[in-house]
Amino acid sequence: MPLRTPLYAWHEAAGARLIEFGGWQMPLQYTGIIEEHLTVRRGVGLFDVSHMGKLLVRGPSAHAFLDGLSANDIPTTPGRARYTQLLREDGTIIDDLIVTCLSSTDFFVVCNAGPRPTVLAWFAAHRPPDAAVEDLTRSHLCIAVQGPRAPELLQRLTPTDLSAVRPFWGSVLDAAPTDDPVPEAAAPPETEGWGWPAADPLMAAGSQLAPTGVSGGPRFLATRTGYTGEPGFELFPPEVPGQRLWAALMAAGHDLGVQPIGLGARDTLRLEKGYLLSGQDFTGSQTPLEVNSARVIRWDRPFLGREALQAQRARGDYPRLVGLRMMDRSIPRHGCGVLSGGARVGAVTSGTLSPTLRVGIALASVDRAHATVGTSLDVDIRGAPHSAQVVRPPFL
């Protein structure tokens, strides 16, 4: 049976179309993918992405442990967040991660829902004795507030100055008290106020990130590492207060046109920006070089898979992940063949009709000879070739 986030009942009551994704029952859409997509591009939307894996890695060797498994270097400055990819010995990607440094010995790792058991098993197999991994996935929410008006909305609920939180940084925010109603069942009688746990391991680990001169409300970790290309934040409160925070954000953003947004629009938003989708743009057999992620690799340090990647880079014979823009009104989809002169040279990994551009766009894995920007190719859509051109992501 699929897992459910603490906000499942809210989504069901809001009329969301629910699907199974990554082992969780999640909202695909509420009013429609295009409408929700444009809400985020033009205003502000809320995503419940609590299905994402949330792992707290702690201990004297926590940094060395994570850094040795990561294509990118793991930050050591408290508050700094970084996108990276978790690698095997052969350089292939297990999953992509965002790692936030909470202190010199504490790191918060966000991974994808489907690969979470694999990531946990990989960590267990490589973890040194003085590093511990705690899975907070079920105990904490992840609420993404995204859109050009997202900072304005979140600022209404915290006295912390959000302008000081730069992209790919995190901070512990104070939450202003709210009188917004939440279902009684969401708050057990023994809780007070927001129902904040007495001992939240994430807050204990992130104590160095607490703002100075701010007090009065419960606190939660926020990062600025969005998956939509718009300004925004990811909030990581515990379960009970997280439900209150969701309700408070919906109420506080009424005049801003805030809407709940499903995974359908999340997919079209990320694809317009050329962001990868785990399990689709990489499936466990590709290396960072093969999925347009060479920029992620920090070569001047030892890490698992480094030698395999160096050898692959030297050969240069690997497929490339490119952007495709359709030349007609057709819509490319995952799995469509990519053709040159009628011969297959690759396949679409992600494709859609861009709600912003109103044209078909795709990420596609193609052979090296057909990966140059400006190359004309065809995409096989239901047995018919449709013209496309290789472009460099992002699409907007």
Q: What is the CATH domain class of the largest domain? A: Alpha Beta
Strand order of the largest sheet: 11-12-13-10-4-14
* Shape verdict: globular
Largest sheet: 6 strands, mixed
Superfamily at the CATH H level of the largest domain?
Probable tRNA modification gtpase trme, domain 1
Mean pLDDT: 93
Give Rg in angstroms: 21 Å
Please give a structural write-up.
The protein is 20% helix and 29% strand. It is an alpha+beta fold and 396 residues long. It has two domains: 179 residues, Gyrase A, domain 2, CATH 3.30.1360.120; 121 residues, Elongation Factor Tu (Ef-tu), domain 3 (Beta Barrel), CATH 2.40.30. It is globular and about 65 Å long. 48% of the residues are buried.
Question: What keyword list fits this structure?
Answer:
396 residues; alpha+beta; Gyrase A, domain 2; Elongation Factor Tu (Ef-tu), domain 3; 2 domains; six-stranded mixed beta sheet; six-stranded antiparallel barrel; 9 helices; 29% strand; globular
At a glance:
This protein is α+β, with helices and mostly antiparallel strands and 396 residues long. It has helices at residues 8-13, 33-42, 62-67, 116-126, 150-155, 201-205, 239-252, 263-272, 306-315, and strands spanning 3-4, 17-21, 24-29, 45-48, 53-58, 81-87, 93-103, 106-111, 132-135, 143-146, 170-174, 219-223, 232-236, 259-260, 320-326, 337-340, 343-353, 360-366, 376-381, 384-391. The protein has 2 domains: 3-50 and 140-270, Probable tRNA modification gtpase trme, domain 1 (Gyrase A, domain 2, 2-Layer Sandwich); 271-391, Elongation Factor Tu (Ef-tu), domain 3 (Beta Barrel), CATH 2.40.30.
